[in-house]
Amino acid sequence: MFAAKSTRFLLLVLGFAIYFTVNEPQTAYAMHIMEGFLPLGWAIFWWAMFIPFFILGLRALIKITKETPELKIMLGLAGAFTFVLSALKIPSVTGSSSHPTGTGLGAVMFGPLPMSVLGSIVLLFQALLLAHGGLTTLGANAFSMAVAGPIIGYTVYKWMMRASGRQKLSIFAAAALANLSTYVVTSVQLSLAFPAESGGFLASLAKFGGIFAVTQVPLAISEGLLTILIWNWLQSYNSDELSILQRKMKGA
Fold first, then answer.
1. Which residues contact 153 (CB under 8 A, 6 or more apart)?
2. pLDDT tens, 146-162?
3. Which residues cross the membrane (predicted)?
4. Is 134 helix (H, G, I), strand (E, B) or coil?
């Protein structure tokens, strides 16, 4: 029964992905740093920062699938959720674009390390199929969305659960802050690579951060609410699997 319900849910998520991919507004900009935009030195630096997390994430995924193979479909759902949300490019008032990230749900379910793999696979597909991001900048984009975002989201979730014990509020905060932290890191990456002539890094950070802030704050709130809805759906139809996940995360 779980496999049938999860398969229907996965098909629904993928259907939305195809729909929004075909019908998304065309724009020359994207939040992911585009191909060739970063200087070579910075591109290599962010690849070097990302690769250790990817290796640790692979080890974590192998462990999960060996110890609890019944959670493979849940891993697929987390990856599909990330793909759908991060593929929705929304033009901002500044001429750039913003989008949700979808990594908070997977971070809450499996921890941050598996999301370094799932998120980077999503970014690779988007770079190859949607021209959203790039291959030389994949390390930088993966570090911001698949590493930093999930780490912040997971840390916030664990802290709020210990402080308040309110799971839904903790999930909302985790998803919203995983989203916002991705954009903060992206702004830092761009500011380091392109410091302003007047004011240097800080002036550039204020500029890049301001570009995304107008649209990203409401998007982060919306993503937090949507993540709670998905969590409620999983509790209604996949409570056994969520119980396994909760026990696994407590023992981690």
1. 103, 104, 107, 108, 112, 174, 175, 177, 178, 181
2. 999 999 999 999 999 99
3. 40-61, 73-90, 110-131, 138-157, 169-196, 208-234
4. coil
Count the Cβ atoms, other than its own, within 10 Å of residue 168. Answer: 12
pTM to 2 decimals? Answer: 0.82
Q: Which residue has the tokens 């995360």?
A: 249
CA distances from residue 64 to 111, 113, 127, 224 in whole angstroms, order as listed? 11, 11, 27, 26
For the stretch 161-188, pLDDT in tens is 999 989 999 999 999 999 999 989 988 9
pLDDT, averaged across the chain: 82
Which helix (H) or strand (E) covers residue 235, if one does? helix 200-237
- Ordered DSSP codes for 116-128: HHHHHHHHHHIII
Element (H, E) at 47: helix 40-67
Q: Spell 195-220 as b/e; 16+ CB within 10 A means b.
A: eeeeeeeeebbebbbebbbebbeebb
Query: Given a cut of 50, is residue 21 above it in pLDDT?
Result: no
Could you give the CA distance from residue 60 to residue 111 in angstroms, rounded to a whole number? 9
Task: Find tokens 């209604």 and name the residue.
Answer: 236
Residue 29 has pLDDT above 80, yes or no: no
Which tokens belong to 219? 């998007």
User: pLDDT class for 224, splitting at 50, 70, 90?
Assistant: very high
Cα dihedral 42, 48, 53, 54, rounded to 10, equals 100
